[in-house]
Amino acid sequence: MSEEIRNRILDAAARVYAQYGFRGATTRRIASEADVNEVTLFRTFGSKAELLEAMLQSQVVGNGVPLLTFDEELSARDNLVQWCSQVLDHLRQHAHLIRKTIGEAEERPDAACAACERSSSAGASLVVYLERLREDGYAEPDTDLETGVSMLMSTMFGDALYRDIMPNAFPPIDVAAERYAETFMRAVGVRAAPMPVRSRPSRVAGTRRRDH
Amino acid sequence: MSEEIRNRILDAAARVYAQYGFRGATTRRIASEADVNEVTLFRTFGSKAELLEAMLQSQVVGNGVPLLTFDEELSARDNLVQWCSQVLDHLRQHAHLIRKTIGEAEERPDAACAACERSSSAGASLVVYLERLREDGYAEPDTDLETGVSMLMSTMFGDALYRDIMPNAFPPIDVAAERYAETFMRAVGVRAAPMPVRSRPSRVAGTRRRDH
DNA sequence: GTAGCAAGCAAGTACCTACTTGCTTGCATC
DNA sequence: GATGCAAGCAAGTAGGTACTTGCTTGCTAC
Fold first, then answer.
1. CB-based contact B59:B14 (threshold 8 Å)
2. Does residue B27 lie within 7 Å of nucleic acid chain D, judged by its CB?
3. Is the CB of B36 under 7 A from strand D?
4. Strand, helix or coil for residue A62
5. Which chain B residue is nearest to residue A178, measuring alpha carbons?
6. How many CB atoms lie within 10 A of CB B25?
7. How would you write the pLDDT of chain B (212 residues) with one tens digit per residue?
8. Which residues make Cβ contacts (< 8 Å) with residue A44, sequence separation at least 6?
9. Looking at the DSSP assignment, which residues form a beta bridge with residue A139?
10. Other residues' Cβ atoms within 10 Å of the Cβ of residue A197
């Protein structure tokens, strides 16, 4: 089948690109990494540029930064920790590829943009969640939410992309997610318990908050 | 003089490298950017690798991330805002170069490390400052200082390096420094006024804090 | 069996790359 | 004016790059 060999080439291209970048990802290297004749690359994808474009697209499809989908069963803290952990995992898995793509943004800006949209919508999903916490009285109303979210996203990108080249600039890897989430909560004023009183509007249906 | 032409080559190499990276920074391009014969590069630096190494070193020397040197006249907030502003300025000036160097860390890890040491010592200077604020009662004692600092550094790197490719993921450029500083202050519990009472040891000489 | 097709293989094209060599030009010093 | 030196210039070397062409091999379907 042609499909199997096609995927083998795409996978090999991803590995080679992640290590050597666009210029360094020669057709020769990719072919030998995929254990395929070099001519097959051109017959299958037409050119090196088209190959790498297809490879980047295949890496992005269904592979974006995870959105925050809150679980009513969990506390705000646990929701945040879990999401941070997912985002960190995802970014770390694609760290080399992202680093290369971003590093070459001057020369091929379109490639970098694809990945960016995903991450900004992930940030947006966090904003939505925080606004809900706020109207439920779980978060203080007078904090700079957007800046906090922006900082948390930068933090997770920084951790995932640069931990391996400057390891002592970050919290230990096994507690990073919760430390980020907790520090973030302080920054944007997310409380464990809701605001003491005020005219907090009761939620619609389906919530299980019976607290005072 | 040979010195002038040498600097012209180094500057040109920096520009070309910032745009094309190591592989893309061909001796031909650098020579033409410096308006110098290509042979002169080899006579002056020996090889392309030595040239670019010299260029990176010349960019780092006396050019590290600024350390936080607090001004007793200013409030903690103003000290932090000022420092953040300096760091952001510095990082933005070298953004392209840093991005390329970090993107190529897999292939030339030593080059990336040089820049990293500087920035981690900048973070360390912030920790020192915060510990002083804490013992003066200007900061809460029970917050995760290291994580906060790590997040602030990541934030500033992220802003400086990625703002141009994802502009709406960050606060407006003219207020970014103060928003980061203020959000950071919340996160690590830096107050405008010192702790209410306790057995706070009085500072040595030269301070002007007469508050209770 | 044979026709079609996907892949391998060997070789070649045209261009770019780092780097070298031999020679000329201009300037500054004695 | 002769010497030395830094730079330019033209040409060449050896190898890598993307990409092409022509032919062979092996498998699958009718």
1. yes
2. no
3. yes
4. coil
5. B147
6. 24
7. 578 899 999 999 999 999 999 999 999 999 999 999 999 999 999 999 999 999 999 988 767 889 998 888 889 999 999 999 999 999 999 999 999 999 999 888 877 777 777 788 899 999 999 999 999 889 999 899 999 999 999 999 999 999 998 999 999 999 999 999 999 999 999 987 665 544 444 444 444 444 44
8. A2, A5, A6, A9, A51
9. A190
10. 8
CB contact under 8 A, B112 and A165: yes
Cα–Cα distance, A172 to B151 (Å, whole number): 13
Count of beta carbons in the 10 Å neighbourhood of residue B203: 13
Question: In degrees to the nearest 10, what's the CA dihedral of A103, A109, A110, A116?
Answer: 60
Global confidence as pTM: 0.87
- Computed from CA positions of residues B137, A145, B172, A121, in that sequence, does the dihedral angle turn out positive or negative? positive
Distance from CA of B21 to the nearest CA of A (A): 8
For A100, name the nearest residue in chain B, comparing CA atoms only. Answer: B103
Quick one: three-class SS letters along B124-189? HHHHHHHHHHHHCCCECCCCCHHHHHHHHHHHHHHHHHHCCCCHHHCCCCCCHHHHHHHHHHHHHC
Which amino acid is present at B175? Answer: V
A44 CB contact with strand C at below 7 Å = yes
Q: How far apart are the first and last CA of chain A?
A: 64
What distances in angstroms separate CA B144 from CA A59, A187, A211, B37, one per listed residue?
36, 12, 29, 56
What CA–CA distance (Å, rounded) separates B170 from A81?
22
Token pair 């907790």: residue: A182
Take residue A87 and report the two structure tokens written for it. Answer: 């985002």
> What are phi and psi for residue A102, nearest 5 degrees?
-70, -40
Q: In this structure, are residues A103 and B100 in contact, taking their beta carbons and an 8 Å threshold?
A: yes
Q: How many residues does chain A have?
A: 212
Mapped to the 3 state alphabet, what secondary structure does B61-101 carry? Answer: CCCCCCCCCCCCCCCHHHHHHHHHHHHHHHHHHCHHHHHHH
B178 phi/psi in degrees, rounded to 5: -70, -35
- The tokens describing A157, both together, are 């990108």
What the block records as the tokens of A99 is 């680093």
Q: Number of A:B CB contacts under 8 A? A: 156
